[in-house]
Amino acid sequence: MSISIAILAGGLATRLHPITQTIPKAMIEICGKPFLEHQIQLFKSQGFTEIVVLTGYLSNMIEEYFGDGSKFGIHIQYSYDGDKLLGTGGALQKALPLLSENFIVIYGDSYLSVPYSPIVEFYLNHTTGTKKQSQPEPLALMTVYKNADLYDKSNVVFQNGILVDYNKKQKRQDMEYIDWGLGIINQSAFSAYQNIEVFDLAELYQSLLPKKQLIGYEVFQRFYEIGSFDGLNEIEKILV
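RESULT FIELD:
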């Protein structure tokens, strides 16, 4: 597919010390392979071959292992934060020249094994030409999962197919859903951030929500992650 995937893999992963004191989180070995390789194999199996890895901490180890991606049958490019961490939003903004007009964004510690094409199709069907001119065109999509605080704190209000609220810092009692970890963003969503270097992706989402430019897509399969030791133990069982 022509749509590219941005993988956010620049964090320090302090929760996984001492493991991540010497390797980046993406290179933690799961069942004999770096976790990032499992992600890439998943993307390739679904037809996505244009990958941009957003790196920071110990990025050289990722680039040395994966190179340009040719040995994995894909094309990989890299965007490096630089001397200071840019936040997830800032890192994406810096990587925009390498990404397609609409691109998928996934956290580098998430394993999300549902078909991605229907999500992309859902988003594209809500862009120009498919909705009434009086309605705003969505500039981003967030996948949501009815988590009910089970795997992490729920942070989304999603009602009747509508994304009502999203806040990672201020919890509401009616927040039963969680940001599942896969988004689709149009590059124009960053236009208001051109003069801001450091910001979080959550800020971008929250700025789009009141303008009805962020839509939600519900998934029904839980996410897996390697951001914690419990997550590492769980994911080893499904990637055997």
